[in-house]
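Entry 14. Ran structure prediction on the chain below.
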Amino acid sequence: MFEGTDTLVWETCLRSIAFTADPSKISLIEGDEVYSNLEAYGFLLEVMCGLHSPVVGETEVFGQFKNFAKLWVKQEPQRVTLMQRLFGEAKDIRSKHLCNLGTQSYGSWLKRKVKGRHVHILGGGNLAQEIAPYLLKISESVTIHVRNPDKVKIKGVIVRGLSERAFTTGTLIVAAPLTASYIQQWLRGSTIEFFDLRDTSNSDPLTIDCDRRHVLSDVFSEIERTKSLLMPIIDLVKSEILARSERTASQVHVRPQGWDDICA
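Output, structure tokens:
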């Protein structure tokens, strides 16, 4: 339970992270963790770099935090410098250690699995924008279906409104938190293959008749089988994050309100 007007909460697919100057306002439950100062900075970097994600080094969580940071800075302008430093270090770490990890991304996994020449994506958020460039390399066309087409701008991608119900045939990838009943009502035509990348793909399953069907757990299962190969890289990144956090903590900064605790 998060209480207090000064408590901001960042929701990801896997966790809720609360930022507060007064941890006593947070009602913790078993399994919750609290980070302060050096540890808080390092934990944020690890999350932004995708070290706590099922897909090591994934970029979606970075985009999610970027959106959250805009709200944080709007409410607390004094956080601008902190945000700039976090983003700068996360980008640097990613470029040095977390590029070209093979199947450790949704896009590269789909690039190997998708067989259809015409691909349709339900949703235009961070996940859709991440996987679209991979799909454009292997498909004749990529069409994104969203509620507001004017808000989606991806080079080379066709954008349609959900109200058009323009899907007729091809590969369907669900990359938005829609219910199974809504998708099945929206869907027209047939699909030769189907990829359900919703968090609820197992608890709210879709019953679509097609030759090839994959759900989000299929992605995670394959990644887990190869994750052990990435452990040396993960250990190296964690060591670098610790060193960067210690360097940041040792520098003198004027923080009138201190560094917030983080509860994850």
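The mean pLDDT is 85. Will compare against last week's run tomorrow.
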